Every structure is written in structure tokens, then in C-alpha cells.
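Forgive a beginner's question, but would it be possible to get a protein, spelled out as residues, together with the matching C-alpha cells, please?
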Amino acid sequence: MNSRIDYLLTQIDALKQKLDVSRPLLNETILQAIDIEYTYNSNRIEGNTLTLRETDLVINKGLTIGGKSMREHLEAVNHYEAIALIKEFVTADNMLNENIIKDIHSLVLRGIDRENAGKYRSVPVAISGSRHEPPQPWQVPKLMEDLNFWIQEEAENLHPVIFAAEIHERIATIHPFIDGNGRTARLLMNLILLQNGYTIANISGDTESRLAYYSALEKCNLNQDKTDFMVLITEHVYDSMEKLVRKLG
């Protein structure tokens, strides 16, 4: 393991101990603010132009924002409800499997692409701006089945933060769906984090953060080197944990 990652994991686990003590202070207002901000950033990474305030108004007030597409409105509502769904899986203590992956994706694309929501792609895809070529569609079911086995084997062997980052990277690399892979991968990562008592890791959607994120993912694909991606995700987990612990005093 990389020394930077080792150091961050030690810091994260120390923050988790503080969070466990402060958990009674975690009220609905704080949790909702985290979920709205996460929805805003995860959608922004994919090109959604709603502001943080607009995202909040769409989700909490049901408002229609002038000049914004119906798709952007649906992306906000769907993502927010997908967070509620992963929290249901956490409460039920469901182990991650293919059905859960498909259920989450189905919600991400609900009303946007009914034909492909919750279904593995049947066509080749290209990732805009990336040199990574996702697997052919006929390979996807087997790769997802292999991922399912890997999850069962490695869930107890890896640090939860590394396990969550691995899930994220593997879904993004397989690219099992025609659309919505990034959002689904980040939701699955956060499902693992929440199941293990961490907070939601929020990757900022600003240009600099987005470029660093895509660059680290591409390095996994082209160089088979996951170090940068693991460091990046671990840093985002640390930042999110530190921010929440500070907020709780």
C-alpha cells in the first residue's frame, strides 16, 4: 500500500471514532445538506448545469428552473432518491450484488432512458475525451458476474475505503451501462462507505477536481496503475469526514 494512502486511512479511522461519538448530533438538516451537495457535485461532474441552490429548489420545492432541461431536473431528483435507496440498503445490511447495482442504475436513469434503465448495455460505447475503450457488450455480463464473486471474496479483506474505491473503479472501467455509469459507480462507492460507518465522499464537480478525477481513472485503465485513483478517493473520503466532524464540533 502507498504511504500516503496508509497515512490517510489512519487519519480517516481516527475521524470515524470521533464521528461515532458525535453521531447523536447528526440531525436530518445536516444529512439532507450533505445529500443535496453530493447530488449537485455528482451531476455536475457529468455536465449538469443546475447550481447548488437550483438543485435544492428542484428537490425540496419541486420547482422548475427556467432555461434548464427536463433531463437536468430529472437527474437531480433521481440522484437524490438514489441516495435514499442506498441508505435503505445500508439499513437492511444488504451485501452489494448485481441486483442492487441494477436497482441503483434504474433509479439514476428513471424517466430519462426507460429502455436502458437498470439494464446492461447491448452496444459498444466510447467515453468522450478518454482513450480508454470499454469492454465489448458481450463481455459485460461475465465481467459483472466476476465482479460479484470478487465482492464476496474481498469484502472482508480490504479496508472499507479501499474496497469502496475499488468498486467505483471497477464499475467505471467495465462501463456496464449505456449511460449513468459515473453516477452509479459513485453511489455504489458511497453505499460501501455508509455501510461501514463513514460519511458520503463528495467529489467536487469543479473543473480542476473533475480533471484530476478523470485523469486518475484513465491511468487505471491505460497503465493498470490504480495508485493515483486510490489516493484521490482516500483524500476525498478524508476531506468529507473531516468537514462533517468539524461541523459536529
Notes: The chain has one domain: 3-247. The first helix runs from residue 3 to 22.
